[in-house]
């Protein structure tokens, strides 16, 4: 019988009441007295030298308060990168300046040149059109290979070339070389992991406010991590100490990674509000989002797998070009390296692995983490490659995977990470049960009777989540710790506010987190609320990304709740005139073990705040505890996915007929929310595989700059999913045994889709087609069939 | 958007008069014009809304001809155009419900977007475009992408479709916009078959005469087997090459013939 409350129950999401009735309070819903509006004049060329920006006429236009240009930011810090990658020669990555407004050069379409602050948005836009900008257009570096060639246009004049770093990682060279030398078979694949635009439903918004009375700044912003923004912007850009800077990220309508980063517009609004002593608001248009939100993915990879005569994987080697765009966004440098290279073992016991990554500057929008961040790129190349190997060897793709699975845990990979738990055989068994593989031939015949081809694609995935152990990431170059924090504030009547550093922007924390505290205390969930998203209300927090909220912040919340229980037992012991060691807490009652003497939760909490009968000589009044939690390892969710497609050979159109996901997320707090997270991740992964791509032309003009050309997945593009998370091997190193579920769907699904398309084409005799780059659009499929 | 004045006349005559002002622009359903204005890509001084003119709304059938007034929405044609099922089905699949409830036939053909659906129906049916001053045959009306025979200030007041024996429209959707990557309208009349292609060509909507000849002789999918469209002047973009579009013209024609009723 399913539980109806606490851990493992599926109460409906309490936050949905306000989201679905239009009562959410998003950043754009916040307006402050005296507010001005800013419009950014953005570059329409990919690369150019700014000869002059004349704002004289524009400044005199109606409603204009002030116009800012790059010169206003002389001597002010640029936007920082949060991760220092060291290259294979031991040198630090190249880290060019990233000014808030362009200085000297523009480096991508959308780079902000000037900012017009006016009484209304229309007046700001009118004045922006009157700014006279003289830009000498320069040749652009767009394609990564071309950008690395001798004589390529340099994105940053002060750097020697466009190579940010040349990184190598994994096993000893000799071991990798030996594996390939003795291989009975080598499978090679070259592929592209397509550039994506995250496109959260809510575009980015920033509202800067300044109180001259107490010299305090407030930034309201669409962020996944307000404390991180406070730290980066306060310490590195504007020089505002934490106690004078409040950052609020209220309801946020989706982030998917692109709202992690510290952006120029946030710094600008905070800065400008101090300059003009009035609030300054910016709301991104969708067009601006396409050219200013950090993009995702954009890797070009060659990967090789060495197998012995028995089809055991004996070596793996990858060579990737990773696009950084024009500037280093906050966590951009970590994505193709530590979030990607460390996952190249996948679910397999390959003993020798080497990962090579060259990060490249180009005249395009900066690229950074997007749902999965590095791990989808790793999974896609590995699982496409294993599928290709199975086809070349004429063996069953599931059998080949099973043969090479890691089966004993903990497992030290050759790429630095140690998997604590997992059962890849179990998730594959479950998947095979879910997909009715035995019935596939009959389904294929049905499709063929309609003139269609049918394909089945299988893959596994593993991800490193619960980001991350601070001492480890510090050694790897992170400029931040990746712990999290929670304060449990028990009020006099027993109700509870839990202030958490995780930020909920669609994940359902407001429902799931109270389930944990309620379970621990044995009280009703309705007595517990979550507070998040305001640096003035929560103790600290590194925010939400990397499927970390429950594993890291949830663990902090557990630790703080444990402290609450310990103190409450002391109070109960006093009230019951018993030793604290004899007090048991069950169902919200403190009982002296072995007796019927008890006090209720509310009696204890009241005593803490009305300490008339209270051990004041031993303990303080009040009942509030804070805990910081730093994980000792990543968590390793894993699973097996299957996709069945139907392909129309006349048009190349692919439709997804069935999709199954068997995931191991460890313990699960709210199964309904977990399923929702998987559904959303699958939709985004299917979007990447079939529909989405961000394209530039050779001059660096953004071709997919609106929904007219950027294809988002819609309801009729995705099937009804079969999802399962019953094969749980709980995480061994966090108190909840949870692994995280937010990114799995987006990581695991793209290879399943492409594997299925290749399978369908082979069934139709198109055996020359060994790979199609994503998105596997009708035009590309048709071209591959006739290529 | 830039500032503009707006008028909402109640007669065609008043609308024509209002359109005589400098930089005046007719506004019908606004499904193209409003996004254009929001992007500041147009700066009309005055918008003349056609939505308050009753004489521009509705459809009727007489003597085998369906007349649809210029400001009739796609949703209305989808709902009430059952006497011309191929046309009603086309209208029912334009855009999404919001587009169909605002967008109008007059607005669509006056804009002549190279990927729009209605121009294929008008050309494929040999329709007559009626304006406030004259009647124009579809073959003369569509003059290349976003170009028509309309004069400055001229309003499409109605489109007259001869109802064929059989017709169907097949649209292969561009994945992002869901406009036609290639759309083919096939209509069989007593005196021959017309085939109109949208979405594919740099010249906008056009007829495919080789297919018309073959289908006039034998109205069956097989009849177009082996016919091919030259890729020379086809659109090539992110979503498909010229060769792919040329190929799809054949596929969609065959499917339209098979579906025609």
UniProtKB/TrEMBL annotation, chain A:
Coiled-coil regions, chain positions: none
GO function terms (MF aspect): iron ion binding; oxidoreductase activity
Aldehyde oxidase/xanthine dehydrogenase a/b hammerhead domain: residues covered: 21-139
Keyword Oxidoreductase part of the UniProt annotation: yes
UniProt-listed InterPro entries: Ald_Oxase/Xan_DH_a/b (IPR000674), Ald_Oxase/Xan_DH_a/b_sf (IPR036856), Ald_Oxase/xanthine_DH-like (IPR016208), AldOxase/xan_DH_MoCoBD1 (IPR008274), AldOxase/xan_DH_MoCoBD2 (IPR046867), AldOxase/xan_DH_Mopterin-bd_sf (IPR037165)
Keywords, alphabetical: Molybdenum, Oxidoreductase
Entries under SMART domains matching the protein: Ald_Xan_dh_C
PANTHER family for the chain: ALDEHYDE OXIDASE 1-RELATED, XANTHINE DEHYDROGENASE
Name of this chain's protein: Carbon monoxide dehydrogenase
Lineage: Bacteria, Pseudomonadati, Pseudomonadota, Alphaproteobacteria, Rhodobacterales
Automatic annotation (TrEMBL), chain B:
GO MF entries: FAD binding; oxidoreductase activity
Keywords: FAD, Flavoprotein, Oxidoreductase
All residue ranges annotated as the FAD-binding PCMH-type domain in the record: 1-166
Annotated protein name in UniProt: Carbon monoxide dehydrogenase
SMART domains reported in the protein's UniProt record: CO_deh_flav_C
Pfam families: FAD_binding_5 (PF00941)
Superkingdom of origin organism: Bacteria
UniProt xrefs under InterPro entries: CO_DH_flav_C, CO_DH_flav_C_dom_sf, Diverse_Substr_Oxidored, FAD-bd_PCMH, FAD-bd_PCMH-like_sf, FAD-bd_PCMH_sub1, FAD-bd_PCMH_sub2, Mopterin_DH_FAD-bd
């Amino acid at each position: 019988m399913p539980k109806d409350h606490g851990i493992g129950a599926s109460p409906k999401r309490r936050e949905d009441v306000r989201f679905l009735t239009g009562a959410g309070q998003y950043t754009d819903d916040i307006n402050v007295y005296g507010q001005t509006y800013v419009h950014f004049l953005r570059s329409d060329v990919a690369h150019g030298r700014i000869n002059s920006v004349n704002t004289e006429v524009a400044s005199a236009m109606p409603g204009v308060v002030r116009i800012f240009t790059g010169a206003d930011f002389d001597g002010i810090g640029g936007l920082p990168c949060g991760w220092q990658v060291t290259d294979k020669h031991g040198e630090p990555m190249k880290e060019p300046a990233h000014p808030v407004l362009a200085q000297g050069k523009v480096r991508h379409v959308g780079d902000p040149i000037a900012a017009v602050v006016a009484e209304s948005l229309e007046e700001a836009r009118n004045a922006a059109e009157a700014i006279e900008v003289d830009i000498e257009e320069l040749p652009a570096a767009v394609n990564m290979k071309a950008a690395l060639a001798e004589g390529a246009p340099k994105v940053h004049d002060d750097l020697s070339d466009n190579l940010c770093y040349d990184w190598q990682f994994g096993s000893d060279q000799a071991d990798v070389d030996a594996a390939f030398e003795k291989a009975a078979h080598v499978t090679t694949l070259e592929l592209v992991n397509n550039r994506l635009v995250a496109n959260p439903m809510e575009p980015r918004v920033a509202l800067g406010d300044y109180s001259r009375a107490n010299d305090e700044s407030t930034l309201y912003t669409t962020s996944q991590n307000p404390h991180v923004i406070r730290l980066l912007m306060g310490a590195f850009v504007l020089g505002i100490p934490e106690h004078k800077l409040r950052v609020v990220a209220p309801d946020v309508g989706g982030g998917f990674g692109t709202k992690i980063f510290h952006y120029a517009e946030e710094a600008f609004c905070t800065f400008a509000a101090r300059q003009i002593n009035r609030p300054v608001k910016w709301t991104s248009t969708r067009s601006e989002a396409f050219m200013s939100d950090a993009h995702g993915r954009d890797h070009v990879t060659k990967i090789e797998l060495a197998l012995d005569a028995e089809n055991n994987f004996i070596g793996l080697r990858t060579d990737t070009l990773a696009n950084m765009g024009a500037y280093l966004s906050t966590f951009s440098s970590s994505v193709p390296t530590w979030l990607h290279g460390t996952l190249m073992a996948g679910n397999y016991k390959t003993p020798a692995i080497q990962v090579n990554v060259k990060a490249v500057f180009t005249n395009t929008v900066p690229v950074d983490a997007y749902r999965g961040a590095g791990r989808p790129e790793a999974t896609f190349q590995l699982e496409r490659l294993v599928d290709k190997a199975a086809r070349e060897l004429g063996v069953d793709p599931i059998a080949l995977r099973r043969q090479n699975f890691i089966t004993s845990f903990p497992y030290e990979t050759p790429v630095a990470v140690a998997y604590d738990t997992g059962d890849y055989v179990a998730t594959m068994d479950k998947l095979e049960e879910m997909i009715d593989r035995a019935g596939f031939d009959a389904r294929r015949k049905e499709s063929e009777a309609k003139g269609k081809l049918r394909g089945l694609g299988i893959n596994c995935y593993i991800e490193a989540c619960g980001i991350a152990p601070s001492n480890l990431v510090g050694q790897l170059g992170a400029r931040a710790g990746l712990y999290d924090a929670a304060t449990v504030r028990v009020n006099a009547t027993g109700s509870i506010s839990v202030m958490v550093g995780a930020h909920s922007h669609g994940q359902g924390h407001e429902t799931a987190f109270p389930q944990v505290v309620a379970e621990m205390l044995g009280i009703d969930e309705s007595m517990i609320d979550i507070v998040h998203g305001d640096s003035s209300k929560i103790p600290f927090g590194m925010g939400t990304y990397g499927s970390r909220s429950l594993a890291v912040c949830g663990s902090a919340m557990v630790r703080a709740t444990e402290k609450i229980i310990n103190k409450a037992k002391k109070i109960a012991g006093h009230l019951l005139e018993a030793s604290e060691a004899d007090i048991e807490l069950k169902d919200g009652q403190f009982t002296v073990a072995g007796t019927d003497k008890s006090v209720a939760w509310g009696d204890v909490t009241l005593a803490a705040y009305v300490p008339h009968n209270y051990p004041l000589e031993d303990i303080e009044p009040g009942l509030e505890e804070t805990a910081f939690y730093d994980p000792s390892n990543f968590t390793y969710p894993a699973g097996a996915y299957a996709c069945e497609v139907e392909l129309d050979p006349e048009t190349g159109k692919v439709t997804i007929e069935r999709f199954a996901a068997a995931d191991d997320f460890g313990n699960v707090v709210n199964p309904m929310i977990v399923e929702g997270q998987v559904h959303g991740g699958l939709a985004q992964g299917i979007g990447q595989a079939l529909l989405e791509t961000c394209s530039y032309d050779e001059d660096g003009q953004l071709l997919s700059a609106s929904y007219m050309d950027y294809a988002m997945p819609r309801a009729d593009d995705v099937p009804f999913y079969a999802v399962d998370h019953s094969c749980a091997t709980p995480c061994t190193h966090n108190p909840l045994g949870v692994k995280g579920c937010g990114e799995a769907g987006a990581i695991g699904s793209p290879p399943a889709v492409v594997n299925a398309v290749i399978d369908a084409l082979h069934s139709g005799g198109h055996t020359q087609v060994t790979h199609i780059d994503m998105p596997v659009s009708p035009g590309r499929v048709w071209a591959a069939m006739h290529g | 958007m830039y500032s503009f004045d707006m008028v909402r006349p109640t007669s065609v005559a008043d609308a024509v008069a209002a359109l005589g002002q400098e930089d005046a622009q007719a506004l019908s359903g606004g499904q193209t014009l409003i996004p254009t204005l929001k992007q500041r890509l147009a700066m009309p001084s005055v918008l003349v809304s056609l939505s308050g003119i009753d004489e521009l709304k509705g459809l009727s059938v007489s003597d085998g001809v369906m007349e649809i007034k210029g400001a009739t929405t796609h949703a209305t044609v989808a709902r009430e155009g059952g006497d011309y099922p191929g046309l009603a089905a086309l209208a029912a699949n334009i855009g999404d419900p919001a587009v169909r409830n605002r967008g109008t036939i007059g607005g669509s053909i006056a804009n002549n977007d190279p990927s729009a659906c209605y121009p294929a129906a008008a050309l494929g049916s040999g329709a007559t475009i009626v304006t406030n001053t004259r009647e124009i045959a579809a073959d003369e009306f569509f003059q290349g992408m976003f170009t028509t025979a309309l004069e400055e200030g001229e309003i499409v007041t109605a489109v007259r479709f001869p109802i064929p024996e059989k017709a169907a429209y097949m649209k292969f959707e561009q994945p992002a916009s869901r406009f036609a990557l290639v759309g083919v309208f096939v209509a069989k009349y007593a005196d021959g078959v017309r085939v109109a292609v949208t979405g594919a060509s740099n010249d906008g909507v056009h007829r495919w005469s080789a297919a018309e000849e073959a289908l006039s002789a034998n109205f069956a999918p097989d009849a177009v087997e082996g016919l091919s469209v030259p890729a020379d002047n086809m659109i090539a973009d992110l979503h498909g090459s010229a060769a792919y579009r040329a190929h799809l013209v054949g596929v969609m024609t065959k499917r339209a013939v098979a579906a025609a009723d």
